[in-house]
Amino acid sequence: MKIKEIVSALERFAPLPLQDGFDNAGLQIGLTDAETTGALLCLDVTEAVLDEAIASGCNLVISHHPLIFKGYKSITGKDYVERCILKAIKNDIVIYSAHTNLDNAPGGVNYKIAEKIGLKNVRILEPKENCLIKLVTFVPTAQAEEVRNALFTAGCGYIGDYDSCSYNTEGEGTFRAQEGSKPFCGNIGELHHEAEVRIETILPEYKKREVIRTLLLTHPYEEPAYDLYPLYNSWAQVGAGIIGELKEAESELEFLKRIKKTFEVGCLKHNKLTGRLIQKVALCGGAGAFLIPQAIGSGADVFITGEIKYHDYFGRETDILLAEIGHYESEQYTKEIFYSIIRDLFPNFALQFSKVNTNPIKYL
């Protein structure tokens, strides 16, 4: 099996266009045409992780955090990133990372955290904005269903828990074919009237090229007419953070102790306990403190994340319980997502969880 088959599976689950602007998710090092001997799954790429991959015979390392975030004018081994780059190249190891694209994807990092906590009715805390567009096209009535289904297959028509969504209006189109054209219907030089269906559907902007290519291939007309409109709708299935509910309410202390145990937290930081019951839970893996206002606005009883700054704690105790569990601790189960994606498609492929604890923060 080629490495690019694994990469393709990961990117179907967490498309790279879903990553945030600062990020560098995707292929970090190596050639994906190579045959894979196995994949090592980890949170961070370090020299110890690469040594583990070499020892276990894996030529593919899949991480959550990208190894490379900035450009390099030289690679001389002066820091751990450069040493990792050199070691990976020397040993023909491919490194691939799925970071904020996996954070933002349905079923991604925050969904895994919610699963570990036992949340129900899970939904996105801060949906992405300005990512959806509307496609309108006009198709002869007899071919409308074929074109519509092709657009759905290409990625159009998803709204919430529904697929194949479109609006269809019957009407009449007119055109006159000029010399040199090859009209599907009508005659050159004559004004033609054709019964048509106006098809309207929705799609993520990053799928625009693929969808238009599909439209041009499927539409019977030599020159299909179509319009694209930007939408201000929120994309409720994609975005930052998660909110959901516990089956039964818990006391603050009971809940925090359970979180500490579940995520093996060496030191769980929190603001003042006020005696509230915890049932509505908001969370974001990693550095998610930017979502505290959204968590409060959603009416959550608690907000869990990996990192919170000192001043973010002030004045919040009456609004919400804040729980800081550590960046590594909050995202450690991301490896399980990689495993499920790959194992479901390639059940006989050699997968290994890294045994290296890459958390740079230690506790007394």
Automatic annotation (TrEMBL):
<dbReference type="InterPro" id="IPR015867">
    <property type="entry name" value="N-reg_PII/ATP_PRibTrfase_C"/>
</dbReference>
<feature type="binding site">
    <location>
        <position position="331"/>
    </location>
    <ligand>
        <name>a divalent metal cation 1</name>
    </ligand>
</feature>
<dbReference type="GO" id="GO:0005737">
    <property type="term" value="C:cytoplasm"/>
</dbReference>
<feature type="binding site">
    <location>
        <position position="64"/>
    </location>
    <ligand>
        <name>a divalent metal cation 2</name>
    </ligand>
</feature>
<feature type="binding site">
    <location>
        <position position="65"/>
    </location>
    <ligand>
        <name>a divalent metal cation 1</name>
    </ligand>
</feature>
<comment type="subunit">
    <text>Homohexamer.</text>
</comment>
<dbReference type="Pfam" id="PF01784">
    <property type="entry name" value="DUF34_NIF3"/>
</dbReference>
<feature type="binding site">
    <location>
        <position position="103"/>
    </location>
    <ligand>
        <name>a divalent metal cation 1</name>
    </ligand>
</feature>
<protein>
    <recommendedName>
        <fullName>GTP cyclohydrolase 1 type 2 homolog</fullName>
    </recommendedName>
</protein>
<dbReference type="InterPro" id="IPR036069">
    <property type="entry name" value="DUF34/NIF3_sf"/>
</dbReference>
<dbReference type="InterPro" id="IPR017221">
    <property type="entry name" value="DUF34/NIF3_bac"/>
</dbReference>
<keyword id="KW-0479">Metal-binding</keyword>
<comment type="similarity">
    <text>Belongs to the GTP cyclohydrolase I type 2/NIF3 family.</text>
</comment>
<dbReference type="GO" id="GO:0046872">
    <property type="term" value="F:metal ion binding"/>
</dbReference>
<feature type="binding site">
    <location>
        <position position="327"/>
    </location>
    <ligand>
        <name>a divalent metal cation 1</name>
    </ligand>
</feature>
<dbReference type="InterPro" id="IPR002678">
    <property type="entry name" value="DUF34/NIF3"/>
</dbReference>
